[in-house]
């Protein structure tokens, strides 16, 4: 039986590492989602220094409301040197251009600049599927990442290098878009059994489109997959949406 935090006396190795921060720079990795905001501290190698903290995404999820909610996470995770953010929509040079599962006010919002001014730390912002992909991929051949959550995200890598700007979720498929069928709305509309059938069809379609060597399925709804996956398709941890944050700092800004 698990003991509660109030009664357990066992040391928490992640909490201990986080308090000492023996290695630097320490990255605060943030994953902004349509239903939840997550954060974790990472060491320079991308290993966790803390437990994952989570709060619900505000409704309405305006930029100011989301940043305010993120303040409550940073209060629990002090001592970071820089910030990496995975954002559920189109981002370029720290600016968010589209976030259909958050709020229209994100169009043209300079999220990177807002974070740097707010927390006085350098920051980098990328699409959330890109960040998850950095943690999941093996760096061999053509690799595709699909995130199944409130919406549907996608990231394509060749030889370990990201092909930026892919918004596969909004690409026309069947009579609507991938996201309409495989996002939260599709799961609710079609039910779990039909959703799984549609996902199997999407896997076959993306294979024919991208000729990927390996496919990674992430996001909160990946746990609802009930059919057998091909050998070169795997479900990855939802924590990868945070663990890939260090990779945003591997190249010059």
CATH superfamily descriptor of the largest domain: ATPase, nucleotide binding domain
| CATH fold group of the largest domain | Nucleotidyltransferase, domain 5
Major sheet attributes: 5 strands, mixed
Q: What overall form do the CA principal axes indicate? A: globular
Based on DSSP secondary structure assignment, what is the total number of beta strands?
Answer: 15
Please tell me the overall pLDDT: 90
Taken in chain order, the helices and strands follow as HEEEHEEEEHEHEEEEEHHEEH
Span of the ends, CA to CA: 47 Å
Radius of gyration: 18 Å
| CATH architecture identity of the largest domain | 2-Layer Sandwich
Q: Which residues sit in consecutive blocks of at least 5 with pLDDT less than 50?
A: 1-20
Q: In what order do the strands lie side by side in the largest sheet?
A: 3-2-1-4-8
- Overall number of structural domains: 2
Q: Helical proportion?
A: 25-40%
Structural class: alpha/beta
Structure description:
This protein has 253 residues and is of the alpha/beta class. It is built from 7 helices and 15 strands. It has a 5-stranded mixed β-sheet. A hairpin with a 2-residue loop joins β12 and β13. The radius of gyration is 18 Å and the shape is globular.
């Amino acid at each position: 039986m698990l003991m509660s935090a109030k009664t357990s006396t066992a040391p928490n190795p992640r909490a201990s590492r986080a308090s000492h921060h023996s290695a630097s720079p320490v990255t605060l990795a943030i994953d902004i989602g349509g239903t939840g905001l997550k954060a974790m501290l990472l060491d320079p190698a991308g290993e966790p220094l803390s437990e994952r903290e989570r709060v619900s995404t505000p409704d309405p999820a305006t930029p100011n409301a989301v940043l305010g909610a993120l303040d409550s996470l940073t209060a629990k995770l002090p001592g970071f040197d820089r910030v990496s953010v995975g954002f559920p929509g189109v981002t370029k040079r720290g600016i968010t251009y589209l976030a259909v599962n958050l709020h229209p006010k994100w169009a043209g919002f300079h999220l990177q600049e807002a974070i740097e001014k707010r927390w006085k730390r350098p920051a980098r912002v990328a699409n959330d599927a890109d960040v998850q992909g950095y943690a999941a991929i093996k760096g061999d051949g053509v690799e595709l990442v699909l995130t199944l959550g409130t919406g549907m995200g996608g990231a394509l890598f060749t030889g370990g290098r990201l092909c930026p700007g892919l918004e596969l979720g909004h690409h026309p498929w069947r009579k609507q878009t991938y996201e309409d069928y495989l996002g939260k709305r599709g799961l609710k509309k079609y039910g779990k059994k039909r959703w799984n059938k549609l996902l199997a069809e999407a896997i076959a379609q993306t294979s024919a489109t991208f000729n990927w060597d390996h496919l990674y399925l992430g996001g909160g709804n990946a746990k609802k997959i009930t059919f057998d996956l091909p050998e070169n398709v795997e479900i990855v941890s939802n924590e990868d949406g945070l663990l890939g944050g260090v990779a945003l700092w591997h190249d010059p800004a």
